[in-house]
Design a protein that fits this description.
Blueprint: H1 7-16, E1 26-27, E2 38-39, E3 48-49, H2 52-66, H3 86-93, E4 100-102, H4 106-117, E5 126-130, H5 135-147, H6 152-155, E6 156-159, H7 170-180, E7 184-190, H8 202-211, E8 215-219, H9 231-234, E9 238-241, E10 256-259, H10 279-282, H11 305-321, H12 323-345, E11 349-351, E12 364-368, H13 372-384, E13 387-388, E14 390-392, E15 396-399, H14 408-420
Parallel strand pairs: 2-13, 5-6, 5-7, 7-8, 8-9
Antiparallel strand pairs: 1-3, 4-10, 9-10, 11-12, 12-15, 14-15
Length: 421
Amino acid sequence: MSLDLTLDAAQAADAADPLSSWRGEFHFPDGPGGRPATYLCGNSLGLQPRQVVAEVARVLADWQRLAVLGHHGGDAHWLTYQDALAPSLARLLGAAPDEVTAMASLTINLHLLMASFYRPTRARYAILVEAGAFPSDRYAMAAQLRHHGLDPAEALVQVAPRAGESCLREEDIEAAIAREGDRLALVLMPGVQYLTGQFPDLARLRRAAHAVGARFGLDLAHAVGNVPLALHDWGVDFAVWCSYKYLNGGPGATAGLFVHARHHDTELPRLAGWYGNELKTRFRFDERFVPERGAAGWQVSNGPILGMAPLRASLAQFDAAGLDTLVARSRRLTRYLEALLDARLGERIEVITPRELHARGAQLSVRARAGRDASRTLFERLVAAGVVCDWREPGVIRLAPAPLYNSFEDCWRCVEAMRQA
């Protein structure tokens, strides 16, 4: 990439990039003066694809035209609607289609899978997690521990970055796993850390967990649709994600879960529901639960069709663009944004996201070197200038150029607004 950091160079880079055409497939919010905002918040809520309106309208028309028959007839097939999403999700996750399903919300799915994969015994009961885990994950893990009569203060093992550092070191996580050893039941890690944007070596951490006999699960909220994943080959036991960030599924979009194929034919306990019963016998209404094979066997209720319709439209875009191509563009964008920040604001702004491209996704997290209050003032001025980003305590501004719709010019305008602020 050219080191020319002028606006003309940014616009020329956009003009030369074939993927720039995807930008026109999204709706942008308005900024000051009626021009589109500089939107760098896809790590919190992805923009609306233009095709979403047509997809939702189609579901509404089917409901109007078919009513209850939409579950079985016509083009609707609501009974198996989530199955149509599985191949696309599998490609993003590096999984087989029967290892994934779209359902519920992230934290609900985490509880459902922990009911299966966190089975504490008197000797093996501890859960290992990053010290900066997203609060919802922490609440869920603490609730599961209390449900089993355990004290989170003793049974929840937390690994923190070293003093003066922002990101975890894989060797420190490995050392903690080895240290806990036989008392460790579960290791739960983020695919991408929500505050720093760090993308750790998940295959390495899985190997460490399995080496001591612990299960290994992932929260992929900030990873799916953002970074290359290979859950099946990595041997991950289970994973959960939401779909409203990089997957652009809309606010509160239907989430999903992954269960590795090696667990499909086991007698794992689960919190079962009618929609997890095998389809071929579901309408016999038998008393005995016979799970559908694969991740679909963890479904508990019928899926929200109107909630999955936007996701269906969005996944079609990922299929068309290709994740590998998007990841390559994402790395070009973050490298350019990083170069701008270093060149223009390096003495005043610190980037806490890893510098190595393989160790991060689309997000760069920054903070003012002058401290938390200076960061907060900067954030408020950015928002007033039409730069949509987000704030996370303690004093971090997250900037996420999503490769499907963001541009080099967006990165340039963001840093120019920061410079002026």
